[in-house]
TrEMBL record:
Domain Oxidoreductase DRL-like catalytic: 160-321
Name of the protein: NAD(P)-dependent oxidoreductase
Superkingdom, taxonomy of origin: Bacteria
Name of a matching Pfam family: DRL_cat
PANTHER family the record matches: SAF DOMAIN PROTEIN, STRU PROTEIN
InterPro entries linked: DRL_cat, NAD(P)-bd_dom_sf
Length: 431
């Protein structure tokens, strides 16, 4: 992000700020709007939420007067408001991509099918799109990236989310010519695979987040989705299904992430994993074959070797997202995107509790299923269903036991969703 602050300041001084449209004004969205208001060279021009009061509040929390906010679901009125320098709050998710003056659209919904439409609309309207919605990216990111390339706009994941934060460290190490052994993220609580919105409700209310969101964190789904995005952006793979997930402190990581014959836990290198105990940080484990580099790393207090940890002790989630928007507009560069070609990893669907034929599944953060992390080719061979395709209209055709993988043969998918259709296209064209 070097020099981005100066570029933004220049836009501010020229009276040409980046106009950002945001879809999703929950906790993350509200924080993003507040952060943008402290930045130079960028305006949160349009904020959309299914509950328009959330969109309005995202503005008023920053001190914007109510009479400076135009509430409308009409594109024509939104265009006029933007031309007049007003802020737009809406429940119409079509407006940010279609508005005349919008430069970049951010999806902060976390809903796979909704994210698919937001991204497609933005790309078709020649707007850059930032996905603070990894759940969509891990299902159809390769296709969306290809579409954006063809349209001449940027499709990107977000700075501040763990995949984006890891990518910064990865690019740093890779650019230096370091040998990268492993990449990963911290997790701040053990996986409780059977948790659901009812069991976490009290904690969610006390934390100010939705029970579904907290469930997705606690049952491990969010971590698996994030590791899938890291894998697809780097080509690195899970060492084992779901990752090892050891418990450790930072200075233990170089010893843990070594091959088994050297006293570590790995069967191979160039892997993605997570660690209980180093949240909210992200890490990259590096080594080298040159003795002088080892000597200098040790002189610089990076540990005894042969592996060393590069550790970032924070990720600021949606507060950093505007930096990805700025990078897309100013430099025409993404923060993190899937590699060209087919994906290398998948977040597949696992049964959360014993289910009977005829039961309806409910998707991410629900009562019936959660996600785990697997190689794309293995998932494809097993006909494992990507978790992002599961909706409340997905019907189970046969009984399944807790911990079993859901396959395409086990369910009747809702094939009317946009994300399902785009996934089919991705598999045909890329997969």
């Amino acid at each position: 992000m070097l020099n981005l602050n100066r570029k933004l300041r220049a836009l501010e001084e020229a009276g040409k700020p980046i106009k950002l449209g945001l879809v999703g004004a929950g906790q993350m969205g509200k924080g993003m709007v507040s952060q943008i208001m402290k930045m130079k060279g960028m305006i949160p021009a349009i904020v959309v939420d299914i509950n328009v009061d959330n969109a309005i509040e995202s503005y008023t929390l920053t001190g914007i007067a109510r009479d400076e906010i135009v509430v409308t679901d009409l594109l024509s009125e939104a265009n006029v408001a933007m031309e007049q320098g007003k802020y737009v709050a809406s429940a119409n998710a079509d407006i940010p991509a279609a508005a005349n003056l919008t430069d970049v659209v951010v999806d902060a919904t976390g809903v796979p099918d909704v994210g698919a439409k937001i991204a497609i609309d933005a790309i078709m309207n020649k707007k850059h799109v930032v996905m603070l919605n990894v759940e969509t990216d891990v299902v159809i990111g390769a296709y969306l990236k290809k579409m954006a390339d063809n349209a001449g706009v940027i499709y990107t994941g977000s700075a501040g989310d763990e995949p984006g934060a890891v990518m910064e460290l990865y690019d740093f190490a890779d650019g230096m010519g370091m040998d990268i052994v492993a990449i990963g993220k911290g997790k701040n609580n053990p996986v409780v695979a059977g948790c659901n919105p009812d069991t976490v409700r009290e904690q969610a209310i006390n934390s100010g987040v939705s029970p579904k969101m907290l469930t997705a964190f606690k049952d491990g789904t969010k971590t698996m989705v994030e590791m899938t995005a890291m894998a697809n952006a780097t080509g690195y793979l899970p060492d084992v299904r779901g990752g090892h997930g050891p418990s450790a402190v930072v200075n233990e990581l170089p010893g843990i992430f070594q091959l088994k014959e050297n006293g570590g836990i790995l069967s191979s290198t160039k892997i993605v994993d997570y660690v209980n105990g180093v949240a909210p940080g992200v890490f990259v484990i590096v080594t080298t074959d040159l003795p002088q580099i080892h000597h200098e790393m040790q002189y610089l207090s990076m540990g005894p070797g042969p592996n060393y940890v590069l550790f970032r002790p924070y990720h600021l989630t949606s507060l950093e997202t505007p930096l990805s928007a700025a990078r897309a507009v100013i430099y025409n560069e993404p923060t993190i995107v899937p590699l060209p070609g087919k994906p290398v990893a998948e977040t597949i669907t696992v049964v959360k509790k014993d289910l009977a034929a005829g039961d309806m599944l409910d998707g991410i953060g629900g009562f019936t299923v959660f996600g785990t992390f697997e190689e794309y080719e293995t998932a494809k061979a097993e006909r494992a269903v990507p978790l992002g395709l599961i909706t409340k209209n997905t019907k189970l055709l046969k009984p399944k036991k807790t911990g079993e993988i859901i396959t395409y043969d086990d369910i009747e998918l809702d094939k009317t969703t946009l994300i399902y259709k785009l996934r089919e296209l991705q598999e045909t064209l890329i997969g």
